[in-house]
Amino acid sequence: MGITALIVFIASMGMLLVRNVTHTVWLLAVEGVALSVMVFLSRPITLEQTVIGLVTIFIKAGVIPFTMNRVTLTWPQAYRTDRPLPWWGYLAGIALVLSVTHIIHLLSPVGIIHHRDLFFYGLASIYLGLLQMISRRHVLSQVGSLIAVENALVILAASVAGQLPMFMEFGMLIDLLVAVVILSWISRLVHHQFNTTDVTVMRFLRR
Amino acid sequence: MVILAGLGPIGVMALVVAGNRLMPKWLPIMIAVWVTIVWIATGLYFYHDITHGKWYMWLLLLVDLIAAGSAWDSIWWIREHQTIKRLRYYVWWAFFWLALIIIATAGNLVLAWLAIEFSTLASGALIVEMGHRRALEAAWKYIVVASVGMLMAIIGIVFLYASLQFEHMGWNTLDYSNLHAHYLAISPIVRKMATILIVCGIGTKAGLVPFHTWLPDAHSVAPSPVSGLLSGILLGVSLVTIQHFVAAVPLSSHVFLSGQHLLLLFGILSVVVGTLALLVQKDIKRMLAYSSIEQVGIMAIGFGIGTPFAQEAVIWQLVFHAIIKSGLFYISGHLSVRYHSIHLPQMSNMFQRHRGLAVTWATFIIALAGLPPLGLAYSEWMILYGLWSSHLWVILALLSLSLILGFAALMHHLLGGMWGRTNQPEDLVGIAVTGGVSHE
Q1: Maximum CA extent, chain B
Q2: Which of A150, A168, A202 would best serve as a mutation to test chain B binding (most B beta carbons within 10 A)?
Q3: Count of domains in chain A?
Q4: In the predicted model, is pLDDT for residue A206 greater than 80?
Q5: Per-residue b or e along A129-150, where b marks 16 or more CB atoms closer than 10 Å to that residue's CB
Q6: Cβ contacts of A186 on chain B, cutoff 8 Å
Q7: How would you class B280 by CB atoms within 10 Å of its CB: exposed for 0-12, middle for 13-18, buried for 19 or more?
Q8: Residue B257 has pLDDT above 90, yes or no
């Protein structure tokens, strides 16, 4: 399980650094596969776990990357590239990841953390996802960051609770699916109406 | 109960599918009649609970009442906006109504979280249906900001669940009653962390300052019947969800940044920012949106005081605000169409030109300003009295000053519109309009 969480963490770092949004979509698919593997690696394997694992791979490694990829394919290459990460993004990223160790130090005496490595990768990936959201300007980078934070949340939950109730897992998966479909629809409209994929430009072009 | 209450929105979806084939012209009217029947049936079915002080039943009745108002206004609004895709509008509208019903009646934190999250998506889609650039930008900002807030909240919820996982109760662990019964089993640091995350996270959806950045844009460009639901209901029921959590998992008021402290802090910030922004607004619906921030701030202060008296005041405030604000949003949409503009300075001489709309607008604005004997005056006085009794002098002073300023701002906008100088070419006034509102 630690390896799969590490893969998600590395993919989150990758998403922060890559500029081509098509690569972001692929990294999300990798995260989706890693999370499904993590579900199947958890013990004991029950029918409930199997269903969650299959639905996870279907939605997170299948439908979501496919939907986002379809959107990017309709755009010329110039619209698939994000601006580079600003210089402060690197510093903030390092500081945020390091701060996770402090939070682990704070929460360890409480006994809520069952798996320190998973907790580290989960919380660090959440931070990186949030950093991606505020430092990146491309519409699909922002959609990707939302999904990345949700993926990281699954790891964080596994580190403190083992597994979440099925109702919660499914609710969050369906919520994510609907969110991505709607945001992809908006992304297409944004490109069509504003002739840009940069969210900061939208503000100035809206009139 | 949620399943029973959910039959209303499901009926709307069935009407959209069947009614559009059989009698497409009558679809909006059929939906409005259906929603009204659901409202009356809800009142009759839950009459016993409603009359015996179960205030979440009042919330359900309120949600259905405002939804009925929204459905009737949609008939008029759709006629004025012929370009709107009716079927999609009603499908998203039904989802939004369903989400509001679930939030209002949920006895479980994670169920409320999911419903709030779905309400964002459904109402975001309704904003996109407007089709213009401002709507796209607003919908984008709304969905992204609200989703980040809700992700923060779910982290807090996961920590709570992890702390009580030993009960092996599945998602029922997060029932408010169960949380309250076993909150002492959750370590104080986890409770504090969860409180900060959940109050800030769901506070984003409640429109509390400083998490409100999406609200003025989203509320001002949404279809007017939807703005009424967003402002009148969604903000209030999101705040009630926060209150349910704060009451279920309390922290001692001596703990720095307890739930009550956060509600008081964000509440007074919302009141001050909302009031100051009210003074300078030029866009009619944006003005109403900032007023909603102010009102939700007053409610947050009431919950933050924490006494039963103050909480009762908040429920009254919520009910009065929902009715008044939804009415104002509905009217503002029609005024915008009449004047071909969303700008307040261009909406002048209202009383002579559109007397019916003007009188209703004026009545609701006066009610919103808190003038007795209209409802908000009493609930606001009750909250002020709650602050006085709890010796929260600084907040009392700031709230009183803000209420005076808010009153002045609303009267300024009202009087300017009623009898101000005409800026509008005569030939534009009174023409039957088909959605040609300028969003410049």
Answers
A1: 72
A2: A168
A3: 1
A4: no
A5: bbbbbebbbbbbbbbbbbbbbb
A6: 124, 128, 136, 139-140, 143
A7: exposed
A8: no
Determine whether the interchain pair B133/A194 forms a contact, defined as Cβ–Cβ distance below 8 Å: yes
Q: What type of residue is B95?
A: F
Per-residue DSSP letter, B439: -
Q: Which two tokens stand for residue B149?
A: 């807030």
To the nearest 10 degrees (0 to 180), the angle between helices B7-22 and B86-105 is 170
Helix axes B376-389, B393-419, angle to 10 degrees: 160
Q: What's the rounded Cα separation, in Å, for the pair A124 and A104?
A: 11
Check: CB of residue A27 under 8 Å from CB of residue A143: no
Cα-based distances in Å from B336 to B289, B306, B419, B429: 15, 40, 17, 11
Q: For residue A104, what are the contacts with CB-CB under 8 A and spacing of at least 6?
A: A113, A116, A119, A120
Q: Are B309 and B389 in contact (CB under 8 A)?
A: yes
Contacts from B255-260 at CB under 8 Å and sequence distance 24+?
B255/B188, B255/B192, B257/B192, B257/B195, B257/B196, B258/B192, B258/B195, B259/B195, B259/B199, B260/B303, B260/B304, B260/B305, B260/B306
Mutation target among B171, B204, B205, B217 for the A interface, most CBs of A within 10 A: B171
Do B162 and A112 make contact, defined as CB atoms within 8 angstroms?
A: yes
Query: What pLDDT shows up at residue B26?
Result: 87
Q: Which token pair is B334?
A: 């029609």
The position carrying tokens 């407007």 is B130
Question: Mutation test of the interface with chain A: which of B159, B166, B283, choosing the one with the most A Cβ atoms within 10 A?
Answer: B159
Subunit contact B133:A207, Cβ cutoff 8 A: yes
CB atoms A153 and B134 under 8 Å: no
- For residue B94 the two structure tokens come to 């039904």
Tokens of B75: 């008939």
What integer is the mean pLDDT of A101-113? 89
With contact defined as beta carbons under 8 Å apart, do B423 and B345 qualify? yes
Tell me what the mean pLDDT of segment A61-67 comes to: 91
Domain that holds residue A141: 2-205
CA angle B307, B308, B312 (to 5 degrees): 120
SS3 label, residue A187:
helix
Q: Is B125 on the interface with A (CB under 8 A)?
A: yes
The nearest alpha carbon in chain A to B170 belongs to A165
What confidence tier does B4 reach under pLDDT thresholds 50, 70, 90?
Answer: confident
d(CA A183, CA B140): 8
What are B341's strand-pairing partners?
B438
Could you tell me how many residues make up chain B? 440
pTM of the shown model: 0.92
Domain boundaries, chain B: 2-428
**Token pair listed for A191:** 């490109």
Give the whole-angstrom CA distance, residue A175 versus residue B175: 20
At residue B416, the pLDDT reads: 84
Any B CB within 8 A of A134 CB = no
Q: Quick one: CA dihedral B358, B364, B369, B371, positive or negative?
A: positive
Find chain B residues with C-beta within 8 A of A173's C-beta.
none
Q: Minimal CA–CA distance to A68: which of A35, A37, A27?
A: A27
ipTM of this complex: 0.92
Q: Is the pLDDT of residue B421 over 60?
A: no
pLDDT of residue A204: 66
